[in-house]
Design goal:
A seven-stranded mixed β-sheet has the order 15-18-19-14-13-20-21, with helices on both faces. Strands 10-9-8-11-12-23 form a six-stranded mixed β-sheet, with helices on both faces. A three-stranded mixed β-sheet has the order 1-5-4. Helix 14 links the parallel strand 20 and strand 21. Helix 3 packs across helix 4 and helix 9 packs across helix 10. The mean pLDDT is about 95. The N and C termini lie far apart (about 70 Å). The protein is of the alpha/beta class. The protein is built from 15 helices and 25 strands.
Length: about 475
């Protein structure tokens, strides 16, 4: 019998009004794993009402007490790493090793945010008036709507829930309809803690129904979303009616600059690792390469060799694969279409370039393309697959100019042994993050944020934590 997940509202699992049933598929096999409800707007409103009712009492607790509940959650996660990782592999298609990293990192992240309980700070501002004090307090916003993606579905629960709860907010989560099973397991574990009812709620469904109901409700004070630019734009439109604050992490088209003085082996290794992780379905990993002409042939040879060596397949059956399937057929078709149009426009395939027929599942070959024009689709639009388009430049100035020539601005990277070149990149690359001589992965104590169409606001560290607060200025005349 197929597992049917239920919404979690006001401290319990409930059978709520639904507008249909959504099957959840294994992207490696096509098998049905479970079913979720297409939650009705009325049921979403019930979850928001529960969160609103619980919020005042939750905010009244001391931050250190709220942190204690977070630590209960992280402890439950650590006790269930293998089961959680197995669930993520089945529904999302990432490798077992990466799934285990995601689960452990999620627990670490929750603990990290809990540590901020004694570090939340306001400010004292000097007044122009005698005998007056000015204080800035950081306070909770209220109810947070957390809309999750499918590519790192478990970690993104923590990225939204942990800072929201620590700062006194309550939350309504909506996982992606592609990957709800790990979220259901999370709620099973949360139900075993002592967290007060209504503080955390979860509803299932598609963005057009459950997501829209969450975005349009005036009792939601902050919408935190990770996903595509197109969906982020729709969320902004829905939020505008109520002037709801939004925090958006959207797409990326991360440039990787390889200069002639770079360690080419290091660059090739890091860029390939960045591109094939999670089947290339990562917004902050390398999406386009700019290499100086004098080392183009040597570097492309190294890059293509490493890419061609990447083994792919069903990660549940073969733990040695570097990556698994695309999330769905639509994702596979998108990647294939972009590569085919690039070839038609004159790009050359050095390795890969085709859909991989393994009998079942959504797989694309690890691919390197050269001769990709700067204004081409493959260099300008997010591929979100195991594909690396390469563009040749004459020097660092041209590389930086072309890197910045993008509607996206999430992450970037540069490979060089020259400190002056590295510092020039720091000054001139217009991205939220720049990685120098390393792969494209951020730290939880940093600040993960983009510019242009890559988003509004950010996550992680002190600055990400304060995204979940609003300021209250107090003037006291004595």
């Amino acid at each position: 019998m197929t597992i049917q997940h239920r919404n979690f509202i006001n401290g319990g699992f409930v059978d709520t009004k639904a507008q249909g049933i959504i099957p959840v598929l294994n992207p490696a096999t096509g098998a049905v794993l479970s079913e979720i409800p297409e939650t009705s707007p009325e049921a979403v409103a019930d979850a928001i009402a529960a969160a609103k009712t619980a919020q005042k009492g939750w905010e009244a607790k001391a931050p250190i007490e709220r942190a204690g509940y977070l630590r209960q959650i992280s402890a439950k996660i650590r006790q269930n790493v293998p089961a959680l990782a197995k669930t993520i592999v089945a529904e999302q298609g990432k490798t077992m090793g990466l799934a285990e990293v995601e689960v452990n990192f999620t627990a670490d992240y929750i603990d990290y945010m809990a540590e901020w309980a004694r570090r939340l700070e306001g400010e004292i501002v000097t007044s122009d008036n005698p005998n007056e004090s000015i204080f800035l307090f950081r306070q909770a916003i209220g109810v947070v709507g957390g809309i999750l993606p499918w590519n790192f579905p478990f970690f993104l629960i923590a990225r939204k829930l942990a800072p929201a709860l620590l700062t006194g907010n309550t939350i309504v989560l909506k996982p992606s309809e592609e990957t709800p099973n790990n979220a259901a397991m999370f709620m099973d574990l949360l139900a075993e803690t002592d967290i007060p009812k209504g503080v955390v709620n979860m509803v299932y469904g598609r963005g057009a129904v459950a997501g829209a109901a969450l975005c349009e409700n005036p009792d939601v004070g902050l919408l935190s979303f990770t996903g595509s630019v197109e969906t982020g734009s729709r969320i902004m439109g829905a939020a505008a009616k109520n002037i709801t604050k939004v925090n958006l992490e959207l797409g990326g088209k991360a440039p990787a600059i390889v200069l002639k003085d770079a360690d080419l082996d290091l660059a090739a290794e890091a860029i390939v690792a960045s591109r094939v992780i999670n089947s290339g379905q990562v917004c902050n990993c390398a999406e386009r390469v700019y290499v100086e002409a004098s080392v183009e042939d040597e570097f492309v040879a190294k890059l293509s060799q490493k890419m061609s060596e990447q083994k792919f397949g069903n990660p549940a059956e073969d733990f040695s694969v570097a990556y698994g399937p695309m999330i769905n057929k639509a994702g596979l078709d998108k990647v294939a279409g972009m590569v085919n149009r690039a070839k038609a426009a004159g790009a050359s395939v050095v390795t890969g370039g085709e859909v991989a027929d393994l009998g079942q599942g959504n797989y694309f070959q690890p691919t390197v393309l050269t001769g990709c024009a700067q204004d081409s689709e493959i260099m300008q639009k997010e591929v979100f697959g195991p594909v690396l388009p390469v563009n040749t430049v004459k020097d660092i100035d041209e590389a930086i100019t072309r890197a910045n020539d993008s509607e996206f601005g999430l992450t970037s990277s540069i490979y060089t042994r020259d400190i002056n070149s590295a510092m020039q990149a720091c000054r001139e690359l217009k991205f939220g993050e720049t990685y120098i001589n390393r792969n494209n992965f951020e730290a939880m104590q940093g600040y993960h944020a983009g510019v242009r169409k890559s988003g509004i606001g950010g996550a992680d560290g002190k600055h990400g934590l304060y995204e979940f607060t609003q300021t209250h200025m107090v003037y006291i005349q004595s």
